[in-house]
Amino acid sequence: MEQEQELIEKNAHELVIKAGPKGLLQSDLWRGLGMNSREGSRVAVKLERDGLVKRKKELNGGRWTYRLYPNHENGKEEKLEWNTLEHCPCFCCINIKVCGKGQTITPLNCKPLDTWLIEQVNLE
After folding, report:
1. Domains detected in the chain
2. Which residues contact 86 (CB under 8 A, 6 or more apart)?
3. What would the pLDDT profile of 7-57 be if each residue is shown by its tens digit?
């Protein structure tokens, strides 16, 4: 059941990405997925909550609905610029060779990385 839901969400996200910068009406999303409006709304809200799409309220054909947009500029992923990684603690970390998935040291439990990421958010 959970895998089925993940597949539905993945397909929904792909539909929104394919729509590009013009976005996709929420009603077109649920029709494209072959589901009813209630199920489609739940999927759209979940994608928004997960940060994958933006939902903007819109009057369409005399009815209020939402238009879904990929959650990145103009439907394209933003390019990473190397200067945004300046001072990232990973590049000079003594534990870099033993850091990673399945290790005791991971990016998920690294204080220096957490501190640096918080600083980056505060700079924006």
Report:
1. 2-75 (1.10.10.10), 82-123 (no CATH)
2. none
3. 899 999 999 999 988 999 999 999 999 999 999 999 999 999 988 999 999
**Helical (H) or strand (E) element with 54:** strand 53-60
User: Rounded to an integer, what distance in angstroms lies between the CA atom of residue 20 and that of residue 107?
Assistant: 32
Q: 27 with 34: CB under 8 angstroms? A: no
**Cα-Cα end-to-end distance for the chain:** 39
Max CA separation in the chain (angstroms): 61
Q: Which residues pair with 68 in a beta bridge?
A: 24, 55
pTM of the model: 0.56
Residue labelled with tokens 């990232």: 88
Q: Both tokens of residue 5?
A: 């839901």
- Cα distances from 23 to residues 6, 16, 33, 85, in angstroms, run 21, 7, 16, 31
